[in-house]
Amino acid sequence: MIPNVGIDDLTSRIYERRPQETDAPPSDTAPYVLFLGDGCSEAAGVPKLPQIAARAMQMFGLAKTATGSPHEELVGSFLDTITSMKKEQVARMMQMIFASIPVPSFYQQLAQLVRERFFPLIITTNYDTLLEQALDSVGFRAFDYRVTTFDGVTPISTSTGGGSELVHIVKLHGDLARQVIHFTPEAVDSALRSSRQFVKSELRGDLIMVGFSFGDEAINSWLSHSPSREVWWVAPKPPDNPQVVSSWAQEWHEISGTFGNPSIFFAQLSLRLLRLTQFRVRGQERSISQTPDDESFSAALPQAPAELGLADTLQGEIRRAQNVLYALEQSAPVGLRPSDVQAQIAYQKKQMSVLEEKMWSLEDVKPAVIEVVTEIRDDILKADLDQSNNFHIGDSLRKYLFEQVDTVSHEMTKEKPDRFLVSASLSATLALADRVTTDYGSSIIRPNNLRRLAEFAPLAAGRVIV
Asked: Residue 113 half-sphere exposure, CB side, CA atoms within 13 Å?
């Protein structure tokens, strides 16, 4: 975990509000309402309206208009064009545009928090289905969550769980899955007008607003009707109009800068909350309310050794990414995978590559990487000298083993190791160790060394058994 007092404080408040098990006393404060703004879709790589308009106009065969027009003219042409289309046609077009957008890691981390019942109500201005896809990826079924959106007279809601859903998602700007998309503030206002009492009631609770902007005047106004709430503003930049935020809340807090980025915020929040949840299940929870005032929230968490903290965090993220990748790869054969699945697989591999590179760069990890490659080499050389087995290697393989150790050792002396060389050497050593283990069992290479190496080469580890 990366230290941050604001996220520590928010984590303790979220955790205390989490619905307890049936044998525990109920919390006297409702869970926070999570409000996801367009900053989340931007962080996820979702195209903005001018980009959508350009893609769509190209699909309509109006490429010149798409590439040569100012944003205002381009968007205007797009909106004029879709007015003559049925909403099913518009939805299919949008689904084609969105098909190649993978579910980002921070939505996957949020889905884990939803599964642990931290956020039973999520309000969003994003009409994409990335959150729902993330929920599906962590085991949610259709009746585990309810989605409500608006298209005129009454709210449109999926409700197959009989009121037992783990989370209710309210989508203010439409829902691509339900073929309801509102592209302009005027369209949003028109769709919400008849349901404004419902929306205002959903917005009444204490809010965590991630990536929110002030683009919807109606929402700004409705928020001001419950000024006794608590609000957390989470965004890379402080609010442009802090006085407006003050009008929404009796108490408000700000998490901005790097930690206000949705990808960083949810990563850090999930690490804290899930660690607390794990220790609570094991019966090792330390009450946050018992933490001295001068003690940070992090001190209430059971701590790993300092030198293992960040590496342990990265390995946890890698394991989660591995699980998602494995499920995706098992969903369909290579040649039969839909484009969205293939895009998600590529994204997961890229994330794992980034994470393993970060891990190799840790000063406390570098010696461990050298050590495990060296020990695997020594295991093989020792077995070659043992006359009691039938395992023997030639000079070429002996030279190859020393080359891998030399390459890794040399790169680990650098502040930033060459990711291609390190990845190639670790993958090659892991593949060789796996083959030896397959042919000779665990008598040659110690299983612990094989597992340790797999942790440092997660992409290659997916192709071996450890």
From this structure: 29
